[in-house]
Design a protein that fits this description.
This protein is of the alpha/beta class and 277 residues long. The chain contains 8 helices and 15 strands. The strands form 4 sheets. The protein has a 5-stranded parallel sheet, sandwiched between helices. A 5-stranded antiparallel sheet has the order 10-9-8-12-11. Helix 2 crosses helix 3. It is elongated and about 70 Å long. The protein starts with a strand and ends in a 30-residue tail after the last helix.
């Protein structure tokens, strides 16, 4: 069985070391390498490797962030590679195929490749997808909320930082992410994207609208219990009466050192905007 492998590590010498070891193994083809998590996600999508040797600690988007960004159907077999033993338990907890502690040699790598071959046979038999789905869901629970979203639009793939999103709008089978002057179509439902966003920062104000509460400038009473939500860039959205109760949890600022929701603020940013009872 031929194995197509992708090498991901932010250290050039570590990538070279692993490439050399892999080149000595029969039936292994190195289809690419990546020096950070962002490039790793794109490389996995482009090359469709059988296995990824994935460094745990990388700047920007780490190894666990790569898994979080990809869906279970896009995940190949995974081998975590790290110089830090404290990551081993967590790696196995998310159902990694194997975990290799740096430095390692040919014998250790050969044993890992045998496990990869066994996993690939399971996948061909349709037995691996459920495990990968569990991996992604448990990882998301561990990490709470993603920092980045991978957007595929007009034949391109790129990352959007969640904190940069001003508001989200429903659009048929997608949602629209409004980021400054740009708008990006993201394939998800409103319920799905709401689950990916930190409820301390993002608020559902309408069945078709989610807003970054830090972008809110002021609220203006409208008709039938609705409000106009004015953002700092001049955008005006509707807070429907159905979702008005959710906004009340943002009324009081959070004390120092206390976790909680971010309050809606007045134009000066000094105090919470009072809502009518």
């Amino acid at each position: 069985m031929r194995i197509r492998a992708l090498v991901v590590d932010d250290e050039p010498l570590a990538r070279e070391w692993l490439r050399n070891l892999l080149s000595r193994e029969d039936g292994v083809e190195i289809v690419g390498e990546a020096e950070d998590g962002f490039r790793a996600v794109l490389a996995i999508q482009e090359t469709r490797p059988d296995v990824v040797f994935l460094d745990v600690q990388m700047p920007g988007l780490d190894g666990f962030g790569v898994l979080e960004t990809l869906g279970p159907r896009e995940l190949p077999a995974l081998v975590f590679v790290s110089a830090f033993d404290q990551h081993a338990v967590r790696a196995f907890d998310v159902h990694a195929l194997d975990y290799i502690l740096k430095p390692f040699g040919q014998e250790r790598l050969h044993a890992t490749l045998e496990r990869v071959r066994a996993r690939l046979r399971d996948r061909q038999a349709g037995e691996a997808l459920e495990s990968l789905s569990t991996l992604v869901e448990e990882l998301r629970a561990l990490r709470s909320y993603p920092v980045w979203l991978l957007v595929r639009q007009d034949g391109r793939s790129f990352f959007v930082r969640v904190a940069d999103i001003d508001w989200v709008e429903a659009a048929r089978n997608n949602v629209l992410l409004h980021v400054g002057k740009a708008t990006h179509a993201y394939h998800d439902t409103m319920q799905g994207i709401e689950g990916k966003l930190d409820g301390r920062r993002f608020l559902r104000i309408h069945r078709s609208t989610i807003v970054n509460i830090e972008r809110v400038k002021e609220l203006e009473p409208w008709f039938n219990g609705d409000y106009v939500v004015a953002l700092r860039d001049g955008t005006k959205l509707t807070l429907s009466a159905t979702y008005r109760s959710a906004l009340k949890s943002f009324r009081k600022p959070v004390g120092p050192g206390v976790e909680g929701r971010v309050p809606a603020v007045d134009p000066a940013g000094e105090q919470a905007v009072p809502l009518e009872s």
